[in-house]
Design goal:
alpha+beta; 4-stranded antiparallel sheet
């Protein structure tokens, strides 16, 4: 039952992510003339040069790359990209008919809207376990055959596509496109690693046993021991590590302060937590 539910949820994430990505291009990036990376940016160059439909050109390039991937990478990898590669051009064609003319006067606002849509959309697509296809396939294929780093191929393709567009368009439109990519990259990282907003606590104290008991019984949080040694006095000690929600930080501080006012506490933000008690039921 859980597998079926997760599969449905992943499919919904993939569809919504693909729709948001297509919306970013169709509603904002293409109408505003911003430089675009990836297959969409390259297809745009071809479309402008030969007067062909952008969505059809994207679809043809995606099909060609899927064939290359099928021959060089294998069916398992390609199966996860087919849906996105086909859905994206269809959604792009739809959204291209309804550009956001109401904010077209403000290029900076358009940049942030496009970056947000593209970042959240791409992040959801990756979070669902799917691939956006496009130059991803070419990068993986070259890595398998020639051992060229995937990141190197992706960066080269994006930079080349942006540079080609810069030749025939005003500099501001190119810079706005680069800004969209920067915003997208930041948001994708946030979406892909989205968790439950937890924090990690490291506690250094000689009263580690009392603190462990209090955290387990009073706060209902998990605790793990790490063996350590103080650097100055070279005294062996046990370090407590725990991951907990933000709302338990205050009570945790009060508990530890009451047991050992001299305890040394390090708090770090955790971007994602997986496993028993978080993404898997505790009992």
């Amino acid at each position: 039952m859980n597998k079926t539910f997760n599969s449905i949820l992943s499919s919904i994430e993939m569809i919504i992510g693909t729709a948001m990505t297509a919306a970013a291009f169709g509603l904002v990036i293409i109408p505003q003339g911003f430089a675009a990376g990836g297959v969409t940016g390259f297809a745009r160059i071809i479309s402008n040069s030969f007067g062909t439909s952008l969505s059809v050109t994207v679809l043809l390039f995606n099909i060609a790359l899927l064939v290359i991937g099928w021959l060089t990478i294998g069916r398992a990898f390609i199966a996860r990209t087919v849906a996105v590669s086909v859905l994206f051009p269809m959604m792009l064609e739809f959204f291209s008919r309804y550009p956001l003319v109401s904010i077209a006067y403000d290029n900076l606002l358009c940049t942030f809207v496009a970056g947000a849509l593209l970042g959240i959309g791409a992040g959801l697509t990756l979070h669902s376990g799917a691939s956006s296809g496009g130059f991803d396939i070419l990068a993986v294929a070259l890595n398998r055959k020639l051992k060229i780093p995937v990141a190197l191929v992706m960066n080269f393709c994006d930079i080349s596509v942006i540079a080609l567009q810069a030749i025939n368009q005003p500099l501001p439109q190119t810079l706005y496109g680069v800004l969209v990519i920067c915003i997208t990259t930041y948001i994708v990282g946030k979406v892909v690693t989205y968790g439950t907003g937890e924090i990690q606590v490291l506690i250094f104290s000689n009263k580690y046993e009392d603190i462990r008991t209090a955290l387990l019984n009073d706060l209902d949080v998990g605790v793990t021991y790490l063996d350590g040694e103080s650097g100055y006095e070279k005294i062996e000690l046990r370090i407590l590590i725990s991951v907990m929600p933000y709302e338990k930080v205050g009570p945790m501080k009060r508990i530890i302060s009451g047991l050992d006012p001299k305890a040394f506490i390090v708090i770090n933000e955790v971007r994602s937590v997986l496993g028993k008690g978080y993404t898997i039921a505790r009992y």
